[in-house]
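[agent] plan:
  1. take the single chain provided in the ticket
  2. run structure prediction with default settings
  3. attach structure tokens to the ticket
  4. add a short note for the reviewer (M.T.)
[agent] executing step 1
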Amino acid sequence: MRRWVNVAGFLIGILLLPSLAHAQASITGVVKDTSGAILPGVTVQVSSTALIEKTRSVATDVTGQYRIVDLRPGVYSVTFALAGFTTVKREGVELAGSFIATVNADLRVGALTETVTVSGEAPTVDVQSTTKQRVMDQTVISTLPTSRGQFALGALIPGASTALDVGGSLGFDAATGLTIHGSKSDSQRLTLNGIQMNAPVAGGYGGGNDPSPSSVQEFTIDYSAISAESFMGGVRINFVPKDGGNTFRGVVFAAFANDALQGDNFTQELRDRGLVYGNPIDRNWDFNPGFGGPIKRDRLWFYASFRSNGSWNFVPGMFFNKNTNNPNAWTYDPDTSTPISRQYSYHTLNGRVTWQASPRHKFTLSEQDQAFCECGNAVSSTTAPEAGQERRWPVMHSVVGDWSAPLTSRLLVEGVLLWSQQAWTHNPAWQHSPAFGQTGIDPQMISVTDQAGAIPGLLYRSRPTYLYGGNEFINYRAALSYVTGAHALKIGFNGANGRNGPNATYELQPVSYRFNNGVPNQLTERADFFGVESDYNEPGLFAQDRWTMRKWTLTYGVRWDHYGNEFPEQTLGPAQLFPTRNVHFPEVDNLRWHDITPRLGAAYDLFGNGRTAVKVSLGKYLQGQPNGVAESVNPINALVTNTTRTWLDANRDYVAQCDLLNPLANGECQAMANSLFGSAVDITVHADPDLLHGLGERNYNWEFSSSVQHQLAPNVSVDVGYFRRWYGNVQVADNQTVTPADFTPFSITAPVDPRLPGGGGYVISSLYDLNPSVFGRPGSYLIELSDKVARQTEHWNGVDASINVRLTNKALLQGGLSTGRTSTDACAVRSQIGSTSVGSALGGFSASNADSPSQLYCRVEGAFRSQVKLLGSYAFPYDIRVAATFQSLPGPSLSAIYNAPFSNYGPSLGRVVAGGNVSSTVSVNLIAPDTLFGERHNQLDLRFSKRIKAGRTQTSVGMDVYNALNSSTVLSQNNNYAAWQVPTSIVTPRFAKFNVTVDF
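[agent] step 2 finished; step 3 output follows
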């Protein structure tokens, strides 16, 4: 009930307080007479077909300055008029994203009826805004050889990182993250005309609601110096949708590729390293029509689009298991004639209606439905197909309503509201094989992970757990803007309110096994059939001003943010190993956070000619929620729902002959790692009261940037910048039932191996094992900020250098170099409470080696990781165009997880590990993080296209060639030392993809 009261309150607030449009483009400048004196009161009018109202006008203020904001992407003309002076008209001013174009004018005395048209070069340097931004308009989207999605295009920004996509082979994923300059994926946000579309999951960055490219006029990617309108930094991707217009127009895009159109990059070297199959595509398609036009001319328009997009890929080194659904078979037997195709498909339908109710008032209503299936999700070279899952989002529905109005030449208003409902399932996979047909996973199958079998680390037979869930939420945005020539003041609020869940976890079998080269050595008991719910409320207020004084433009703003969440009544019912469980939890309040975050920026027009800008910014940003303590203290999460125990299957019948509910050693089983498993006791997991409520307790990061942008020539500019990001309010979990004295130190000796640093053979110390008297003791965790324990740091430093060349519609070149590194230090915290991660510490809710005072790899001075990104296109005669993208990316940081046998660690420890026996192994990473890397990846993608005109219809027929160099870069490898450096994924081989675009 409380949640809907909050919703009603904010809906009323939106009605009472109009809002400024989100950051769009602006035109600004100074008007003078020929003597250099400023001219107040000059009427400045902009006109463009991009404006529904056709024209917008303001008057210069007492400083001679004017500013026209909230301009949609397009080409504008600017007219300057004042009685007694000649009218001046400037044409060809092109706007995109939130670019601030400086257009100055000098008026001479003359008749008002006399008009002088000036055809100066369009501004290419924004000398007022400090926000770093990349604009992807339809020209870029339709020209470059990419999958046309925001993440594939965003990956071309120097410094940006995301999962590598080759021609759409990655497929759609609602949880894709784009990071830059040390940002976290939970700081990413997708917005539609400024309203946040993300669901309240995984820190709030996932959840779909992904507009189809044919429905988007452009999208902008802000990645540094984000304004006070957003509470977080990182990457913000804003889509500007198509509204339709007075002419019926449409576009159809279609592309297709299959396995017959690809080359072979599976080399003998890869075979020698142990890879048995490459990473070819199965099929790849995209069908995306869009159409719009007038319902009533000059008053009512529509636009609608549909997209069907698919990416089916064969999994490197993984085949159908001949022993699928055979409960008597405990090995993985690959059918090498049946490689596994991981089948991802995605569909979206969206529509938008725009009503120009009056010359100043515009209303729009958008609706979007999406669904996708990552069928065969999680299958990899170390996860057999029967241990995968079908990750489906059958419901992704959203409705957006917004109103905007330039009420006067200085007052602009807008209000936006989004409602969304989503549901997802991660269910057992269906198996497809010519021999077996289509079958589901037999519930009798027990999941097995083999540490050192034929494929070390292989998960097969079944998956330990599955889940399903959903959410419903409302996002809103409202503000007011007052704009003069020198000032642009914004005040407003935005936020979200909703429910996350119930998100339920379940299993087919209450146990899963661990083998060591086929020999059972451990089992995990589970009682995971339960759902988790939480409600949240996240309002924020902001105020921001931009003030231009001669060559200086100062941007300063501040935000107040609140984050509150609570857990509604929840009930935990019985499970296979908890047949009598029936636990009820009443409604519980949790977080009540308040934060004040400043934003500061300054831009200086170095020579006063609009061609060189020096910029600096500093801002504090908050971490996306829910995260950490927002979820970990949910009463349901405090119950012990899984535990491990050493298992000696003496007769090799693969049946745990012991009482699984008895926490003590019995039969073939040693004692449980957590003795509270099997009971309905709510163990102690609580947070520091100062953390749950108060000002400035939320996770945050500061971002500093400085840069110089210079116009080398018309439409050619360069930009060099330095960036630094550092984090604070890191949450840690202190298990208060153990102290450093409860652990015994030991060491291992690394194997002798020329691939290891120094050839191996070195001693790795600072390892700890629980004393046997402590093993199985339930944990009692206090979640608090690391600063209450000791100093903990994380920061990123780096430099970008980029170039931007755009010569009308003929040539385009963008790209540059980025290098930077992350450094972390958690040594002081670890020495006192062990693990600094809330997630890893609370994983089993029992004392574990994660709570030890180990200093191993606690300080990491990251290596500098450098990227080179380039994109370009060129139009040749006869309407032939060639486009290309190039990426040079650093290889992944490597680890080598060594399962040390008792003969290695025993002499140092003086006993077996707690809860184990002489067959127990100890897992240790033999390589310090960020010291050994995989090979660098260089990727060139090409597009060749020919445009054909027939009346107003234009058809572009093209062919893309992805991975044109046919690189065979290893993208990931097995980090289990028993199969160390065996490739698990290589880049998709070179393939051709045909496409056609019809604009009509």
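[agent] step 4 note for reviewer: The domain at 24-127 is CATH 2.60.40.1120 (Immunoglobulin-like).
[agent] ticket updated
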